[in-house]
Amino acid sequence: MLPYENSSLYNHEVFPSPAYRRFLAGRTHPIHRVPHMAYSNSSVPGRSGTQDQAQANQLFNHGLQLHSQGQVNEAMLSYEQALKLAPRHFQALHHVGIGAFQLGDPGLAEHFIRSALAVNPNVAEAHSNLGNALKEQHRFDEALDSYDAALALQAGDADTYYNRGIVLQGLRRKEEALDSYDRALALNADDAQAWNNRAVALKDLGRFDAALESVGRALALNAHNVEAHNNRGNILNDSGDAEAARQAYDLAIELFPGYADAWYNRGRALQALERSEEAVESYSKAIALNPQLVQAYNNRATVLRKLRRLKEALADCEQAIELQRGYVEAYRTQGQILRDMGRPDMAALSYEAVTVLDKSDALAMQHRALALKDSGQYEAALESVGRAIALEPDNADLYLTRGVIQRETRDHDAAIASCHKVIELWPHHPSGYTNLGRVMEELGRSEEAMACYDQALAADPACSLAHFNRGLLQLQQGNYAEGWRSYESRWMAQELSLSRDRREYEQPLWTGVESLAGKTVLLWGEQGLGDTLQFCRYASMAALRGATVILEVKPELVSLMGSLDGVSRIIAKGDPAPAFDLHCPLMSLPLAFGTLVETIPAGVPYLAADPAKVAHWAGVLGEKTRPRVGVVWNGNPKYQNDAIRSITLEQFAPLFGEDCEFVVLQKEVRTADKGLLGLRPNVRQFAAAIEDFSDTAALCELMDVIVTVDTSVAHLAGALGKPVRVLLPRRPDWRWLLGREDSPWYPNAKLYRQPSEGNWSAVIDKVRADLRSRDAN
Fold first, then answer.
1. What's the pTM value of the predicted model, to 2 decimals?
2. pLDDT at 678
3. Domains along the sequence of the chain with CATH
């Protein structure tokens, strides 16, 4: 802030303005401070000679006295009266500029100080003050010129060097900023704020030890300097000592509890320490103190996303963007959250906003491509990643993304070429080999796929995704001994959404080694509904080992699971769990029990339909006059491989012969299919009346046979012990193994496999023939 022209006021210190604070990254702030000033000796004749000049001087001196007492508005009136008598009164012009600055109008301050300098350009203090006014308007290059002009007239002014250092920091000219602070300190070694700002410059240069020494000097001179405590925290945080940083922020907050930036930075330290709940609280305190603090909203959104509080996280991003429309990082975080929420089309728009704001941001273009891929917009996705590659042609990760998109569009040759480009650029990185293995799997070249995964693990033995993909292939091939172990890598593979569902409990994970006798174990469902239906069978095995079993499942499965043997209590996901001693996710139970293909617990049924619901649906269906066939031709469209496993109704419809009654078992019937179903009087559907899986189970119980693609109904029918015909793509999910017409998981199931990629007609023909020959019975 600009000073009064009175030596008794020159040494006061002020915090930087909010505008300048927003400009600086990392909430690390140099301190703005006024320069020393002295009366100038320039005298200029008034319009009416010496009498007007004398009266103008008298009015100016009166204004100066008011100014020194803090009565800025009254002082301004006195200065203005002086200027009416002497329009070229240097001191009055200069001090009107000073007053305007103090009243929050740096533009007006600039105007009057320039007018003063037009009268007398040889006053160093006026040049320095003009620099301050320009600095406040973020016109840093012009401010630097003004400070240099002041120093040319008065080279020994420490405060001018100090403010010059702030401007150089704003211009990111870090070494020059450090030199300017060093010159200020050479003139005044007891300047605590110069030591503090010097520490910021050293931090920005990555010289953390020297920065800590410099901020230590500042605190030795003034132990109550809250900005120095805050900056010390930032230095420690950036150097990797987040706990010491938190302690420094706590000291700043203890001295000044209303210090929003210290609360914000404390949140960053807690975030780095993975103390997420505390970080949210700290960011919330910062926001309460300063609702305009956009970085706090964005950072809180990032932590809330980690905590899976996605709606709150999204609201924070929207607030940050509302406050600052050009805030790139908020759009980026918004895109990540929207992808997590299963809204890839909206996520793509967020990333597109980033690319509009920064046309050189290849990372945003890549993320946009992935979001477009997830929403099925493959052509636009390839265009987006292509733009990124044009910007960064040596970025292997971009070719990796392009290969993933090409693989999903079934353009295997192009995908292979992209993977080879990744390997060329990253010969010792596992990603290229891992993705190439996926392509080989899809082509049915299992040995080559396994070799690719082995190469990935040779490059990085800790590559969780390679372990996971290798495990899926092992399980598909029936190598359960190794496959279940590799499958545990799902929790560590950050590329998989599964990794975000990992539970961290104080109670230990049950691995099969620990005794269950007299213990309470929480078994919790993961992934899809079908996974829970398939692996809940292990609950009774845990009970047989002496455990009290609590089973957590998705709400739509709760009522059905009441029929499962060995379970003491069933809770819905999201509800608080009662006390327990051990826990285990359902899909880790085969490993814990050492399951091999030959030892799969295949006793069916292990679930049963509610008799009351069976009676209800029997009444709805009425008397049976023909064999009843339950049908499912497509699953959840959000499932990653839905396009491979699902069949269009048009392809499925040849099954609907007149000799059977068909009942649609899928809860959701797509809009495009409703009209076609209406043309089939022997096909009945009750989608609107199916409330949960207990209804679906009751309907299954009333069927003679169920024909379904690979969805949760296949597992439900299998668990109920009903005859079920499962239609599988050429490359089936790992649990159906390879080359078999039966399933060791469900002895009541018969499998129908595509003879070639995408060939559903041959599958439908075979199922239809079996139904007509009463093989379905």
1. 0.74
2. 66
3. 1-160 (1.25.40.10), 302-499 (1.25.40.10), 505-599 (3.40.50), 611-772 (3.40.50.2000)
